[in-house]
Amino acid sequence: MTQTCLSHKQRLLVAGTLFGMFFGAGNLIFPVHLGQLAGRQFLPAAIGFILTAVGIPILGVAAIGSTHSEGLQDLSRRVGHRYSYFFTCLLYLTIGPFFAIPRCATTSFTAGVRPLLGTQLSEQTMLFLFSLIFFALVFVFSIRPGSITLWIGKIINPLFLLFLGVLIVTALLHPSIEVSAAVPDASYQNGTFFSALSQGYETMDAIAGLAFGIVVISVIRQMGVREDSTIAKEVLHSGMLAGLLMAFIYLLTILIGVQSLGQFELSENGGIALSQIADYYLGRMGTWILAIAITFACLKTSIGLVTSCAETFVKLFPHALSYRAWAVVFTLFSLIVSNIGLSAIITYSVPVLMLIYPPAITLILLALVGNAFQHNKKVYVCVTICSWAASIFDFLAALPDEMQSALHLEPVIAFARHTLPLFDLNLGWILPSLVGLCIGLLWRQKEKSSDRSHLPVFPIS
């Protein structure tokens, strides 16, 4: 039956679907760690983090809906056919086997399982054995996605959120330090808001939003809404509801990270911090609950990511490999990457995210305001080229220091710092993208003027 809009109940259901896709166990480790870094400067840090970890992902979903696209490849085709293949592959590999899927396994191990194990085996050996079992389950369920993943989503996620709620309330009621006494890390003494922007990138939700958009649109269509403009509005409404819930949880988890500084030193990563906080407030039982909940939550996310990546690559390259073969490739590759450890995965994912985010953000914004220039391809091309050119410098600057030294990148980074405004705030791509926008609009206007000048002129008799 066709509907003119969703009911309040349906809107909440779509919002819950969005929240479930975006918010996994990995989304906890970054705000907790951010809280420890920001200390009493947590409020501007929370605003910056929420802007990139919530605002941009919701806009990404809305961009798919507002342009009536059938997915990321369809949206990025506005730049070019070949570019759509390149960008779709790069984005799915980033939120798949390169970083996000391995991070699920290492987050489960670091925050959940590792604190429960003894010292009979080395940590590297324990990680390998755990990841072997983890990805064996991922593969089995990814080639038979059905009631198992649905059951995990309906049972484990609510349990995980219930435990999280207990942990947050307990921590907030019994802080180990006053917020005003929590000293920020040196990197967060100044420019806290801008430092937190790049922390929000690490959730990978903005690029995931471009991949998830079509799923939400399909759900809305199944509920009976057919009008494209109405679908776009419903995606935005439901996205705002999901975003508010995510922002609320992020704010509270950042706060418990701040309040943990009275008991713990700044942790190497958020997985370690989350484990320490759970053990401190809820004891051994809390550690067990966290281990079970976070492992199954990450398992569900990994199954979904392997499935979506395999399905996408089958569509992109229909004559290459079968779905099962792609699932094998992505699972094995994720297994290998996961064994470099959570801290290393986070370290090496940051440069790639700094490279991908500017073109992704500009694509989202162009899609949302594209009616103003009739989604002209020249505008898309110019903005995309300029944003990629600038993001390469962000990529180089985000590489580990030892890699920068080995590649002698100091002069290149110094040039970018001197040339690009806001470069030190990880926003060096903004001005080049605006320049690209101006060039694209002028090019489009010149083309229109040229077309009008070639129109035949008929004499008036």
Tell me what the structure shows.
With 461 residues, this protein is mainly alpha-helical. It has 2 domains: 11-339, Amino acid/polyamine transporter I; 342-449, no CATH class. The protein contains 18 helices and no strands. It has helices spanning 8-22, 26-38, 42-66, 72-76, 81-98, 100-113, 123-142, 147-173, 192-201, 205-222, 228-259, 270-316, 323-338, 342-369, 377-398, 401-406, 410-419, 430-453. α1 (8-22) packs across α11. It starts with 7 loop residues before the first helix and ends in an 8-residue tail after the last helix. The model has no long low-confidence stretch (mean pLDDT 85).
Task: Specify the CATH homologous superfamily of the largest domain.
Answer: Amino acid/polyamine transporter I
Highest CATH level, the class of the largest domain:
Mainly Alpha
Quickly count the domains: 2
What value does the Rg take, in angstroms? 23 Å
Q: Biggest β-sheet, characterized?
A: none
Quaternary structure of the protein:
single chain
User: Total number of helical segments?
Assistant: 18
Strand content: under 5%
Given as residue ranges, the uncertain stretches (5+ residues, pLDDT < 50) are none
Which outline best applies?
Answer: globular
The helix/strand order is HHHHHHHHHHHHHHHHHH
GO molecular function, one term: L-isoleucine transmembrane transporter activity
GO cellular component, one term: plasma membrane
Transmembrane segments: 12-30, 42-64, 85-105, 125-143, 155-174, 206-223, 235-258, 288-314, 326-346, 352-373, 380-400, 420-443
Membrane topology: Multi-pass membrane protein
